Structure to design on (189 residues):
């Protein structure tokens, strides 16, 4: 089978014009920036009664390590789908690839991967900063510990391993003091 250059260029142009990210979401806040990308709080562009919020991880794939980046991203997406639903783990919603213009070189197109997750409210470290007056009772600490262990047990039961459980990016707190384990930086065993 022969692929013509014009077909590839047409595909790139179509991908560049169509952006699910820009067409379907409004960015509300930047939640964090890491080695592999940026995580945003987003809201769907729908009538008010149908709007939903999510966390959206945006990973730009540069040409320097494109193969490794794509492999890592596809693996993370596969693992998140494999985990399924658990009350103590932030759940996977969707993943897709787009082509965007490079921010530094306007004529250069770069692949950008998006990973949509349940919005996990506040990272535990930020929650503690915003609520310094709150003290954690022994009962609440016990509840949080059980939720954490339940999530880790679920991840291990799915033959996965979480590589980055820490206060700054691994734990999220809801408004009813329920702890969620962020399902980022996972590996398949």
């Amino acid at each position: 089978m022969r692929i013509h250059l014009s077909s590839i260029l047409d595909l790139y142009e179509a991908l560049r014009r169509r952006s699910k990210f820009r067409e379907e979401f409004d960015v509300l806040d930047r939640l964090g920036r890491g080695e592999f990308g940026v995580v945003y709080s987003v809201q769907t562009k729908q009538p008010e009664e149908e709007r939903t919020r999510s966390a959206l991880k945006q990973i730009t794939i540069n040409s320097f390590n494109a193969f490794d980046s794509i492999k890592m991203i596809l693996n993370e997406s596969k693992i998140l789908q494999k985990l399924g639903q658990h009350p103590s783990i932030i759940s996977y919603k969707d993943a897709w690839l787009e082509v965007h213009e490079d921010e530094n070189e306007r004529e250069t197109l770069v692949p950008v991967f998006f990973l949509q997750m349940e919005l996990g409210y506040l990272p535990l470290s930020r929650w503690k900063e915003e609520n310094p007056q709150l003290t954690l009772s022994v009962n609440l600490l016990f509840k949080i510990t059980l939720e954490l262990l339940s999530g880790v047990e679920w991840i291990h039961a799915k033959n996965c391993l979480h590589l980055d459980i820490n206060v700054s990016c691994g734990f999220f707190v809801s408004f009813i003091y329920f702890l969620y384990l962020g399902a980022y930086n996972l590996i398949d065993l």
Remarks:
- The chain has one domain: 5-188.
- The radius of gyration is 19 Å.
- The chain has a mean pLDDT of 77.
- The helical segments are 5-17, 20-24, 66-83, 124-130, 138-157.
